[in-house]
Design goal:
9 domains, 5-stranded mixed beta barrel, alpha+beta, RNA binding, OB fold (Dihydrolipoamide Acetyltransferase, E2P), single chain, 37 helices, about 25% strand
């Protein structure tokens, strides 16, 4: 359009192009400027030549001389002419226009002037998931689809379709190269970044591509749909020649590949690749530690002339990119948008400037793109940046002189003097009301430009100047003339122009809310009903925003017909329930109780102060608590005890979801945002509703009045604080020296109690627990009890602080504590409870003093408190194990119940073990319910080991001596002769069962005969199982018995007495850690090669197995093997180094297979419980002196010290660490278990990733069972950081599923699928979770969702897995349909055919299987593949088919082979 304004006179045109040179009227300067330089011509001929004819050159020179003379004449003849005349003359001379003058028209850009192919500079204002939103000059917007970023990024998006036909592994390529991962647009671009683009499409108003941007509520996003751009370097840099790529030339390139030393770039210039070194990237982007993705766009500058080589080296230096001037080009198309050039002012007009760039090209800069408050003069040279080209002939460009565009930075201003620089958006946020703005410029049909502050303009579109319809804006008259002042409101921002978008409409200025962030939660607001849907009620607020009322907030009760109540267009009164500024979403409530409520609004944890009464809505009901919701999605928990004073038959019926309740805040934890509330205490009738227990502290001495008396406690009102308190009636009875029944009778309501001490505060319950101050202590004249002054036998008084598994803990003074063991409570266990209640004040006698623990042992036995009173002692005091002997009848308290028996406390330091077989005379299958902790039991002593403090006890009746006749290993000596029977015959020797014992020994084949040349194989065949033999004990070391039956061993024996080798009677003092009586568990420890053959026969003994088959004999030898009775015992060659094996609960044993032992090393194991541990240790003491730590592996860990000792040897064993945690959990030491887990993670070697993972999983299980939701989430996040994140996500989901936390498991699966949507395994496990829960439709809906997230090459695998799930857990017919679709579209996926066949075979439908085989074998395949299918078919026919089918398969195979050979 601008070209039509130019003169048709050729010479005139020539003069225009040449006039910048008129100040130096030389003939040499004129000819080069004559050409108009269209893209088809050679712009700069080599050697200074010209494309004009000689006549044209001569004419141009004459005209140049003439114009120079005229200029000189006018200056000399009219020196006193007006300033205006001089300016006009000078302007005509400089710009090449005649005095009549045709100047270049200055036009602003609009949607009509944008044409396809136009190159333009833009600024990114928003990054959407699938597109970029770009701000263009003159208040325009456009968008760039993700497919128009670069060719390489588009290829990544399309995926590798060729891999669809290939089977793939289950593992996802999570650790692959970043170049093959599709990056997010936010990883490539930043808001405020300038980009060079080419227009690819322009749509009419209201029409645009919704598929890329979506139906957004944002006005800018909606506006950007009209123009579509591309950033692809091939399009943007089209026309750039190789000769243009000189140092300093700026260009946009995309990463094409990643090489060893840098990136290969696509410059968009034919046959010229770019190269960017890693060193340059690190130098100019030191904070960017990750490598650039394939397809990323980079703004680079040429650092080395491309003409010198085939590759153009570039740099990322931002200083070079933003400051380098373009001085010469080979073609007009080489001038790209965003290029910095030097321009000459050729004309100054009210609407802008006419410029000349690069000496030949015309350009314009409209007023909006001039530097504010700056005066321009003709002939001045300026730096300007190219915005776009007009696509005219001759070429013409739009330029910008704005400082922020020239420097390629967002515009920054100071709103007030002395304030810091900030962006225009931050200085004037959307919604800001401006009291007065001044109109500075009027565009008749477009709008107004106003001044907001010096140097900052705003634009008001004609549609926003008034609420009335305005068709035109006269600049010198009317209400909106230049100079008029108006109030305005900021409605947007044009980032590229650095101009605010304003509105002068009174209705917009008066709007209460302009954006969602201004809406306050809890505010009552009136709106208009927009529409009612099944999902909610949509309400129009303030004319600009919509709010939604969810169905559970329609009313205080559930509405069956909400359409009758809510009519579109009707007015409605609501309260703001929740505001989400990021999603521009407002949730409302129409519940009358909430709308009309005058109670405080709680929208954040800081508002939830203890004692505040507010309204809340029930949103979840469980058996033990209610969950209620305040405003802004803030939630609180109401324990069951705080719901109601009386017991409710059904919590869900009394408090349905959506019910509004009044609650009182009891406590708030700001760190975890956990709020505990009470409905019961919020009732207006409660007399304690206004009490804050913060006025009472633990240890305060208070007084109170009895308000009520319950079964076990008295309810008090403390004075003067009015705090509710509980006093134990037992404590009160003990204080008064009467029984509890007497206290219940004597205590009256209104009675005043003094000298009470606060011992516990419970903010959640809103009460405290008090106890009577103890009476004056009987301390033998001493007023103060301390560790230095206390003595054995001293009578002291203390308070019970808590109960432990070892008794009751007492507190005396500030630094002295004591413990009362259950066996020290009384002289008759039937007359008293085992231990006193917590907070009970008790008088006791000191019986032991432990200075290291600063603790004393106490006793409340009458015989200790009053030894001179001669009380009746029914249950004697057992100090240590030496006080017991075999056969003693004693009573004690059940200390713990294990799967293998009981532990009974019979003394302060003495515990006895009772195995299952010793509990009852008859067989009792379910025995554990018959016992409970601290139950009084009576039994007899079986054995005592005073050295190890180990006692074994029995509850059975009968003669104890009968159970003690079996021999033990300690009863055999080397050289001793024994009798026995052949138990088993092996190639390497005989196993002989020794008479009168449960032990077996090995007679190696070399010990059969004295003749070395004899054939021992024949000799072995001469023996039969059950044959009686005589043998000589050769060796008993290492817990094994080696035997020999050579005739020479018995040559001196003429008479063999069958009782000759019978051992002496077993001593009564034996340990419970000896051998079990179950012969089934005995096995010989052989060398690594022989043990596999021996262990399967370990269950061939005659006696029935006992319930306890893990308490095998412990022998203090490092080489002892502890075989299992199970036939699944692994081979010794596969066993690790000595470690603890846990079987059937917490029963520990250790062993080691020594692969270097000779084949003649024999093994034995003793299961008799009557072995004398003391004798055994004495006899073997000399044998183990070479390794004093050998027995540590065989000792059962029973304390923290035992575990610590074992872990010193195996610090990397997660098995040991987890058992250590389990040991602490049995003691209710949850915090210690957590500490052990943290120690394990710090101790285990970093290479043992699986061991560390095992500990993390154990810690997750611990937090799931014993922790809170917050602690579980924290542990989960920590585990995900230190391990494979996907594995941890899936394991947590499985843990929640196994613990029946279905809702949380589902949420975890959703979170996992969102984070790892590219993993087929995640989607498959999610689907299996739904199917196991019976939610088939939910599982099936996952399949299409997963295919949207997964790569195409994973689709077949995922579909087949879902089909398999249908077979196993869902509808088999549906699974068959899915497989049919797979094999139909991918007939040569043999793995899919094979899985299909297996699934159908699992349905026992042989005919269907045959049909599938017929179909697959009809497809052309290799003979090897056909062989595998025929083999599979034949196996299925034999398994679930018939003989006729098998014959058919064979015939079919022969026919196929012949056919293949013939072809």
């Amino acid at each position: 359009m601008a070209a039509k304004k130019r003169s048709n006179d050729t010479s005139n045109d020539d003069r225009k192009s040449k006039k910048p040179k008129t100040e130096k009227p030389t003939t040499k300067a004129a000819p080069p400027a004559a050409s108009t330089l269209i893209s088809e011509e050679v712009d700069f001929p080599r050697g200074g030549g010209t494309s004009l004819s000689a006549l044209e050159v001569k004419t141009l020179r004459a005209e140049a001389v003439k114009e120079a003379d005229e200029a000189l004449f006018e200056e000399n003849a009219a020196a006193k002419k007006s300033k205006k005349r001089k300016s006009t003359t000078k302007g005509a001379s400089a710009s090449g226009h005649t005095e009549k003058g045709d100047r270049i028209r200055i036009e602003h850009l609009n949607y009509k002037r944008i044409n396809i192919g136009m190159k333009i500079l833009g600024q990114i204002v928003s990054i959407q998931p699938l597109a970029l939103i770009v701000s263009l000059p003159n208040q325009l917007f456009a968008h760039v689809p993700i497919t128009h970023i670069s060719s390489q990024l588009t290829s990544l998006l399309e995926g590798h379709t060729e891999s669809d036909e290939e089977p793939e592994d289950d593992e996802d390529e999570e650790n692959g190269s970043p170049s093959f991962r599709v990056p997010d647009l936010a990883d490539i671009f930043t808001v405020g970044e300038y980009v060079r683009a080419v227009v690819t499409a322009v749509h009419a108003s209201g029409v645009g591509d919704v598929s890329v941007i979506g139906k957004s509520r944002d006005d800018v996003v909606r506006t950007s749909r009209r123009v579509e751009l591309t950033l692809v370097p091939e399009r943007v840099n089209q026309g750039v020649q190789k000769g243009d790529l000189k140092p300093g030339f700026t260009i946009t390139a995309s990463v094409q590949s990643i090489e060893d030393h840098g990136y290969v770039l696509d410059l968009g210039v034919p046959d010229v690749p770019g190269f960017l070194s890693f060193k340059d990237v690190k130098k100019h982007h030191p904070n960017d530690t990750t490598r650039f993705h394939i397809g990323r766009l980079l703004n680079v500058s040429v650092s080395e002339d491309a003409a010198k080589g085939r590759t153009c080296k570039v740099t990322l230096d931002p200083r070079i990119y933003t400051t380098t001037l373009l001085t010469e080009v080979s073609n007009v198309t080489s001038v790209l948008p965003g290029t910095l050039v030097q321009a000459l002012v050729t004309a100054v007009h009210p609407s802008g400037l006419n410029l000349q760039l690069l000496g030949f090209f015309d350009g314009t800069a409209e007023q909006l793109h001039l530097e504010p408050n700056h005066t321009y003069k003709i002939g001045k040279r300026l730096k300007a940046r190219v915005l776009y080209d007009y696509s005219t002939t001759p070429p013409r460009f739009a330029l910008s002189l704005n400082p922020h565009v020239v420097s390629l930075k967002p515009r920054q201003i100071k709103r007030e003097e002395g304030s810091e620089l900030s962006t225009v958006q931050d200085a004037y946020p959307v919604g800001t009301i401006l009291e007065s703005v001044k109109v500075t410029r009027v565009e008749n049909e477009r709008g107004l430009f106003v001044e907001i502050q010096p140097g900052l303009e705003g634009f008001v579109h004609i549609s926003h100047v008034s609420d009335d319809h305005v068709t035109s804006l006269p600049p010198s008259s009317g209400p909106f003339k230049v100079g008029s002042i108006h109030p305005a409101r900021v409605t947007g921002y044009f980032a590229f122009d650095g101009v605010l978008q304003l509105s002068l409409k009174p209705s917009i200025i008066a709007q209460r809310f302009f954006h969602v962030a201004e809406v306050e939660v809890g505010e009552v607001i009136k709106g208009t009903i927009k529409k009612l849907t099944d999902n909610g009620l949509f309400v129009s607020l303030s004319g600009k925003f919509d709010g939604v009322v969810w169905p559970n907030h329609y009313a205080d009760i559930t509405l069956k017909h909400p359409a009758k109540r809510f009519k579109p267009g009707a007015s409605i009164k609501c309260r703001i329930l929740h505001v989400d500024p990021e999603r521009n979403r407002i949730s409302l409530t129409a519940k009358k109780t909430l709308v009309d409520s005058t109670l405080p609004i709680i929208s954040k944890p800081e508002d939830a102060q203890a004692g505040v009464v507010v309204h809340a809505v029930v949103f979840k009901v469980s058996e033990k608590q209610l969950l209620v919701e305040f405003y802004n999605n803030l939630k609180a928990v109401i324990p069951l005890r705080e719901v109601s004073e009386s017991k409710l038959p059904s919590l869900a019926d009394a408090y349905p979801i959506g019910k509004v309740v009044k609650v009182r805040i009891l406590s708030t934890d700001l760190e975890t945002s956990r709020i505990v509330a009470s409905i019961r205490q919020a009732a207006s009738t409660s007399e304690f509703t206004t009490v804050n227990i913060d006025a009472v502290e633990i240890g305060d001495t208070v007084e109170g009045i009895i308000s009520d008396i319950h079964k076990d406690n008295a309810v008090l009102i403390l004075q003067p604080t009015k705090v509710k308190a509980l006093l134990s009636l037992k404590n009160l009875a003990n204080h008064r020296g009467v029984s509890v029944a007497e206290v219940q009778t004597a205590a009256k309501r209104g009675e005043k109690l003094e000298e009470l001490v606060v011992v516990t505060r419970s903010p959640e319950k809103g009460l405290v627990i008090v106890a009577n101050k103890p009476k004056s202590k009987i301390t033998l004249g001493k007023s103060k009890v301390s560790l230095d002054t206390v003595t054995i036998g001293q009578i002291v008084t203390g308070r019970v602080t808590r109960h432990t598994r070892n008794g009751a803990l007492f507190k005396f003074g500030s630094h002295l504590g004591g413990i009362l063991h259950p066996t020290d409570t009384c002289d008759d266990y039937d007359a008293s409870v085992p231990i006193p209640d917590v907070n009970t004040v008790v008088k006791a006698a000191v019986v032991e003093i432990a200075t290291d623990k600063k603790q004393v042992a106490l006793s409340t036995r009458a015989s200790r408190l009053d030894p001179d009173g001669h009380p009746l002692i029914k249950d004697r005091e057992v100090i240590n194990a030496s006080d017991l002997k075999h056969g003693d009848s004693v009573r004690g308290f059940v200390k713990s119940i294990t799967p293998h028996g009981l532990f009974v406390s019979i003394g302060r330091h003495v515990d006895a073990r009772v195995q299952i077989k010793e509990l009852f005379d008859e067989f009792v299958k379910d025995w554990q319910p018959r016992f409970k902790l601290n139950q009084v039991v009576k039994g007899r002593i079986l054995s005592v080991n005073a050295e190890d403090k180990r006692v074994e006890m029995t509850f059975r009746s009968g003669d104890l001596s009968k159970a003690r006749s079996a021999l033990t290993l300690a009863d055999f000596n080397v050289g001793q002769k024994v009798e026995g029977t052949v138990k088993k015959i092996e190639d390497y020797g005989l196993f002989i069962q020794i008479q009168d014992s449960k032990l077996s020994g090995l007679c190696h084949k070399t010990q059969l005969s004295d003749n070395k040349d004899a054939d021992v194989t024949v000799a072995l065949r001469g023996f039969r199982e059950g044959d009686r033999v005589k043998a000589l004990v050769l060796d008993t070391s290492k817990g094994r018995i080696s035997l020999g039956i050579k005739p020479s061993y018995f040559a001196d024996d003429e008479v063999i007495n069958s009782d000759h080798d019978e051992p002496d009677a077993v001593e009564p003092n034996e340990t419970f850690d000896g051998a079990d009586e179950q012969g089934d568990s005995d096995a010989m420890a052989l060398d690594a090669k022989e043990a596999d053959d021996h262990n399967p026969d370990a269950e061939d003994d005659d006696e029935a197995p006992s319930d306890d088959d893990n308490d095998n004999m412990q022998i203090d030898s490092h080489d002892l093997v502890q075989p299992s009775t199970s036939q699944q015992q692994p081979s010794p060659s596969t066993l690790p180094v000595p470690t603890l094996q846990l079987q059937g609960g917490f029963q520990w044993s250790a062993g080691d297979f020594d692969a270097n032992d000779g084949s003649d090393d024999d093994s034995s194991s003793d299961e008799d419980q009557a072995e004398d541990q003391t004798k055994k240790r004495k006899r073997q003491k000399k044998q183990i002196e070479h390794d004093l730590t050998a027995d540590m592996h065989t000792k059962t860990p029973e304390s923290n010290a035992d575990f610590e000792r074992v872990l010193l040897g195996s610090p990397n064993s997660s098995f040991l660490w987890i058992q250590y945690m389990s040991f602490q959990l049995q003691l209710s030491e949850t915090d210690k278990a957590r500490e052990i887990a943290k120690r394990a993670l710090a101790t285990i070697n970093f290479r043992e990733e699986q061991e560390k993972l095992n500990v993390w999983i154990a810690l997750l299980n611990l937090e799931n069972v014993y922790g809170t939701d917050t602690s579980l989430e924290a542990t989960f996040k920590d585990a995900a950081r230190h391990n494979d994140s996907k594995t941890i996500h899936l394991r947590l989901a499985a843990i929640l599923d196994q613990s029946d936390k279905v809702q949380r498991a589902e949420e975890q699966y959703k979170r996992t699928s969102k984070k790892f949507g590219h993993s087929s395994k995640v989607w498959t496990l999610f689907g299996e979770f739904y199917l196991r829960r019976g939610e088939a439709e939910s599982a099936r809906n996952l399949l299409p969702r997963s295919l949207q997230s997964l790569e195409k090459r994973k689709h077949i695998k995922t579909i087949s897995r879902f089909a398999q799930l249908e077979y196993k857990l869902g509808d088999a017919e549906r699974g068959k349909t899915i497989f049919e679709g797979i094999v139909d579209s991918h007939p040569k996926r043999w793995d899919m055919w094979s899985i299909y066949i297996d699934m159908e075979a699992g349905q026992q439908d042989m005919q269907s299987v045959r049909n599938i085989f017929e179909r697959v074998l009809a497809i052309k395949m290799t003979s090897h593949k056909a062989k595998s299918f025929f083999k599979k078919w034949l196996e299925l026919e034999r398994r679930i088919g018939d003989e006729e089918g098998a014959d058919h398969v064979k015939a079919k195979a022969i026919a196929w082979t012949q056919q293949a050979a013939g072809s």
